[in-house]
Amino acid sequence: MKLHDWQQIYPEATIHAHATDDTSFFSLPVETNFLWISKENLSASEQRLLTTLTKEQKPVISNSKHPWYSALFQGKQAPVTNGRYRIIQVTFQSLGTLSDSWSEEIKSLLPALVDCFFLTETICILVEAYSEQVLSAEELEGVFLALDGDFDTYTRLFVGVFYPYDREFTRLLQEEKELFQTEITYNKQAKCFDLGQSVIRFFAEHAVSDSYMMRCLYTNWFEDDIVAIIIALWNNQGNISSTAKELFMHRNTVQYQIDKFQKRTLLNLKKMNHLFLCYLLIMTFE
């Protein structure tokens, strides 16, 4: 059942990024979220049914062994003192007993991975530290296609943005989960999503200025020189030569700043969806 279906049956249930230890609630993993359903008004038969469902969908790895679990799902400080980190959400049809083997394989493929744990049999969270060797969303899609062939499964993933260690990762993950959920609801074909792909659909219905995630990105990404270049690029439909002429800069200087920005953020300003994301942030928060 989809999240919308559960909400129609239990309209008083609440949606959360993590499960609950409160025994007065059932905590059901649904899609990429957890639905908390109070036991107070449930019949005996409903409680038996939900008890069965929660047992069937319990986490397959002990999250107490994973230091990033507390940072992501309990609002605690990230277990580091420097650096930048991103979260990759992965959904599965099912891995069954192969989850440990899959985890070991993904660690060997992504050497900057600092944590990997399953919330349920069908939801996995990866936390990756920034390095110059990290893969783009397009490259990660290829990695997961290969893994799907090796493990006979089907994955879809959302590649998050790198944030400084001192940000509130619980809030950031929740917003990225909402983006992921919106995309997999409306886009049934694509395998891999990132913020650049998802921003238009999601923020057509949500206020950018209210987003903690978007405000963090604006704070982390932009310096004075790149702001002017992004605005000029947008006004010139991404044409670098026209941008350089407008700014009285050499074309190579503009290209150097674009490449420098891409290296730091993994955003390619030659892609219109990435350029739009940056322009939207500047126009909202400048």
UniProtKB/TrEMBL annotation:
Residues 232-280 form the PucR C-terminal helix-turn-helix domain. Pfam families: HTH_30. InterPro entries: CdaR-like_regulators (IPR051448), Homeodomain-like_sf (IPR009057), PucR_C-HTH_dom (IPR025736), PucR_C-HTH_sf (IPR042070). SUPFAM superfamilies: Homeodomain-like. It comes from the Bacteria. This is PucR C-terminal helix-turn-helix domain-containing protein. It comes from Candidatus Enterococcus willemsii.
